[in-house]
Amino acid sequence: MANYLFGVDVGGTTVKMGLFDKDGNVLEKWEIPTRTENGGEKILPDIADSIKNKMTEKGITKGDVIGAGAGVPGPVDGNGVVHRAVNLGWGEVDLKKELSTLLDGMRVEAGNDANVAALGEMWKGGGQGHQNLVAVTLGTGVGGGIIINGEILTGATGAGGEIGHIHVEDNETEACGCGNFGCLEEYASATGITRLANRALAASDKDSVLRGGEVSAKTVFDAVKAGDALAIEVAEKFGEYLGKGLGVIAGVVNPEIFVIGGGVSKAGEVLFDYIKPSFEKTVFHGCKNTIFALATLGNDAGIYGAARLLL
To answer: What are the residue ranges in the chain where pLDDT is below 70?
Structure first.
């Protein structure tokens, strides 16, 4: 009886892989380099070879395997077709079909990496026990994954859940990486928090431990915990933007829970002290009871979610 699942998280530098049983226990994890040269033509063959080698090593036959799931950094439609993954050098790639062919007809499912990570957190992470959740990844950018009734909300072209590009500020003069101005990502990501801190330092001569040292999301929240007044102002600004953005999302998809992950989430629950006041002030009354929790799977959320795509 088929009992094994492979979860594959394709990143710009490494491909993380996991072998799971169907109850979601990870039996082994490993990585291979992502070879992006020549339009990323080696990526899928490398993944297939690595899966086959692992099956040989473990004495697993194709009949023992339910399939392989993959998360990739780019829009993926409901048919498993990737529509441009810039970091991988891919244009349009029928990942589901191509990887299945390379794996001798094994079942393959695919999704956007942030959506897939959200599925992982629902299955085995901070969102366990909830079928309606929004996972928010606060890293270099702001990523999101929306799960409704246990299913990923992909949208028409796979761009559902791009919450980092909700417009939250009319008076922004610096462009976001997407080309628009005033996106949530410009204030709530690690780089966004750094930007807010540098602006606050430039606009005032208040004493702050941030002056003359390294300014990063981590140093800002370390300073917040130490009671630094300027850092607290930065955290309030961050929370105001993120709370407002999450309030908008709540009014559209009405999740039970927001699961907050990514590097910024390492600051811990202190984040919620700054996000919740703005959220509660702006959100529709029917969504006020949405729970906030921290993600728990870290960098493994992608492989868990990719495996969960198969169930």
So the answer is: none
Q: Walk across the sheet containing 142-148 and list its strands.
A: 151-152, 142-148, 133-138, 257-261, 291-294
Say how far apart CA 147 and CA 261 lie, in whole Å: 15
CA 197/CA 161 separation, integer angstroms: 27
**Per-residue confidence (pLDDT) for residue 69, from 0 to 100:** 98
Give the model's pLDDT for residue 39. Answer: 94
Phi, then psi, of 67 in degrees rounded to 5: 160, -170
In angstroms, what CA-CA distances link 126 with 45, 109, 110, 252?
A: 33, 23, 22, 22
* Chain centroid to CA 81: 19
Q: From the CA atom positions of the chain, what is the Rg in Å?
A: 20
Give the closest residue to 305 by CA, choosing from 81, 144, 70. 70
Q: Report pTM.
A: 0.90
Where do we find the tokens 């492989």? 303
Number of neighbours of residue 45 by Cβ within 10 angstroms:
13
Q: How far apart are CA 263 and CA 10, in angstroms?
A: 18
pLDDT given for residue 249 in this prediction: 97
Residue type, 184: L
Nearest to 221 by CA among 165, 287, 275, 300: 275
Identify the burial level of 303 via C-beta atoms within 10 angstroms of its C-beta, where 0-12 means exposed, 13-18 middle and 19 or more buried.
Answer: buried
